[in-house]
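Technical annex, item 7. During the second reporting period the consortium partners agreed on a shared format for inverse folding records so that results from different sites could be compared directly. Each record opens with the tokenized structure and is followed by the designed sequence. A conforming record, contributed by the partner at site C, is shown below for reference.
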């Protein structure tokens, strides 16, 4: 028979179990109780309400497709392949974004930087939802750009509605879908405000503030907002749509509070991927460990604010911005306070916007600059609160760096052909080959990341949990600290007191107490309480 590797991480196994449920029962949940979809393996013995999501269905349908050609395939094999397929789609979307912004070269490098990023690779070698969180924002950004660049209004409005559809599907894939929606809305509102100011400066007449382009933008904003509200409500719920406004404030205020208001411990403070990062970590993990690449990525934002052939003021802006970004990514810059760092990062963008504002002949579209700026600032700030959010900066960084290299290519080709009178074709080929040297280290790092992949579950774990499955009663409960709960549910097929999707629950206190106390009677009493009614006994006594 064929052999396949285990999935790499912990969380992958909860989605794999749900995919198995879809295959065996036609639904994600283990059973319906009182009209609710329940995962009866979680939070034993009570179970916990759950619901359908994109990833298990993606695994199941990919498995069903592969099975047409290979009868020996398994759900785990399909789960392992799914992130690779989605990563390819992400790279394709990045290519078309770069191509739309500058040229094919920008698209090529944007796609390569997405595909080669070690953080992205390492976080998607299992089969968790991380890959959706990169793929969907890139696809959404691509459709959004195509909507604004469309020649006909009908096509614009259809694509704006399609952006809302993609956001609706994204909300089904991941609870943090709202970040890209919020960024786009802020960017479009910022663009509309900017154009209103520019029109007033130009005409000094309130009656001429609104023109055809601005009216279209307002209409597209309305279509985007409404279609997102409709599709998110269809794919998940209207409450999920409302979270786009509430969630950012909730996450930032509660993520690292040590205890909840009811005094139970906040276990999220012990989750490694929610540890706070610093500026150096954000830069290093995003930009392959090369600070200069992060600086060049930031420069990409500025390059979206200047003309294809810059004038003297724009050349000065580019040079000064790059020098500032080099400082910010240096050892000295990385030690600045967060507010000062972000303020200095924003400074060149503000000057770039002022240049566009007072240049009557400028045809520069500032929407993408605003969107990338909000994306950078938002995700840098979020990453400082939780290290896992660094990966959400990777799409913006890859696109922006692609823009910079596409711009460099354009400039060097023009220099070689127009100034040095070199053959146009050979100049293009030579320039492209020289720029590809930038990819040598990222390719080496990507290969090393892939080769270092070792699943955290081992045959020893698998055999031990299989023995529990074979030799314990079906209603047995595994009491353990939460880390390996997903493995227990999938391999041993037994209920657990806690797992990686319910760890922030009072049960964590009781399990911690069992591991801490040397009083056997106390441990037995706590286990009896947990296995007979979870935390409900305490809740009744507390009343």
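Designed sequence (site C submission):
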């Amino acid at each position: 028979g064929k052999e396949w590797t285990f999935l790499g991480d912990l969380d992958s196994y909860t989605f794999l179990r749900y995919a198995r449920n879809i295959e065996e029962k036609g639904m994600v949940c283990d059973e319906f109780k009182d009209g609710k979809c329940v995962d009866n393996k979680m939070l034993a013995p009570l179970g916990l309400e759950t619901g359908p999501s994109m990833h298990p269905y993606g695994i199941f349908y990919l498995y069903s497709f592969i099975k047409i050609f290979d009868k020996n395939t398994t759900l785990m094999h399909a789960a392992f392949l799914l992130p690779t397929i989605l990563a390819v789609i992400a790279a394709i979307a990045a290519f078309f974004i770069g191509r739309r912004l500058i040229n094919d070269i920008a698209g090529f490098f944007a796609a390569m930087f997405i595909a080669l990023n070690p953080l992205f690779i390492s976080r998607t070698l299992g089969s968790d939802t991380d890959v959706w969180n990169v793929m969907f924002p890139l696809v959404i950004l691509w459709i959004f750009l195509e909507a604004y660049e469309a020649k006909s209004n009908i096509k614009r409005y259809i694509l704006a509605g399609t952006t809302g559809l993609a956001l609706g599907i994204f909300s089904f894939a991941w609870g943090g879908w709202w970040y890209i929606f919020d960024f786009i809305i802020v960017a479009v509102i910022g663009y509309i405000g900017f154009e209103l100011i520019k029109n007033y400066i130009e005409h000094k007449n309130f009656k001429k503030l609104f023109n055809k382009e601005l009216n279209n933008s307002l209409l597209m904003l309305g279509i985007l907002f409404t279609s997102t509200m409709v599709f998110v409500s269809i794919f998940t719920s209207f409450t999920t749509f409302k979270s786009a406004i509430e969630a950012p404030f909730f996450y930032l205020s509660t993520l690292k509070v040590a205890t909840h208001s009811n005094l139970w411990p906040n276990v999220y403070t012990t989750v490694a991927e929610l540890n706070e990062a610093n500026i150096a970590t954000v830069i290093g993990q995003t930009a392959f460990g090369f600070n200069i690449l992060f600086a060049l990525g930031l420069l990409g934002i500025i390059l979206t604010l200047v003309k294809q052939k810059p004038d003297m003021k724009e050349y000065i802006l580019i040079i000064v911005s790059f020098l500032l970004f080099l400082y910010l990514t240096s050892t000295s810059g990385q030690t600045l306070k967060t507010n000062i760092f972000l303020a200095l990062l924003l400074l060149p963008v503000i000057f770039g916007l002022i240049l566009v504002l007072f240049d009557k002949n400028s045809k520069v579209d500032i929407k993408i600059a605003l969107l990338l700026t909000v994306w950078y600032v938002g995700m840098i700030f979020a990453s400082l609160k939780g290290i896992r959010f660094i990966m959400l900066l990777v799409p913006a960084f890859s696109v922006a760096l692609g823009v910079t290299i596409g711009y460099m290519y354009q400039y060097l080709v023009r220099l070689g052909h127009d100034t040095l009178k070199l053959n146009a074709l050979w100049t293009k080929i030579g320039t492209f080959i020289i720029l590809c040297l930038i990819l040598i280290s990222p390719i080496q790092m990507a290969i090393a990341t892939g080769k270092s992949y070792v699943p955290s579950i081992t045959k020893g774990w698998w055999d031990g949990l299989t023995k529990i499955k074979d030799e314990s009663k079906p209603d047995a409960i595994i009491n353990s600290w939460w880390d390996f709960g997903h493995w227990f549910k999938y391999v041993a097929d037994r209920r657990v007191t806690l797992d990686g999707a319910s760890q922030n629950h009072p049960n964590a206190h009781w399990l911690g107490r069992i591991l801490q106390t040397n009083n056997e009677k106390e441990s037995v009493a706590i286990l009896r309480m947990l296995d007979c009614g979870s935390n409900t006994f305490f809740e009744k006594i507390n009343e």
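The mean pLDDT is 91. The two ends are 58 Å apart (CA to CA). All partners now use this format for quarterly exchanges.
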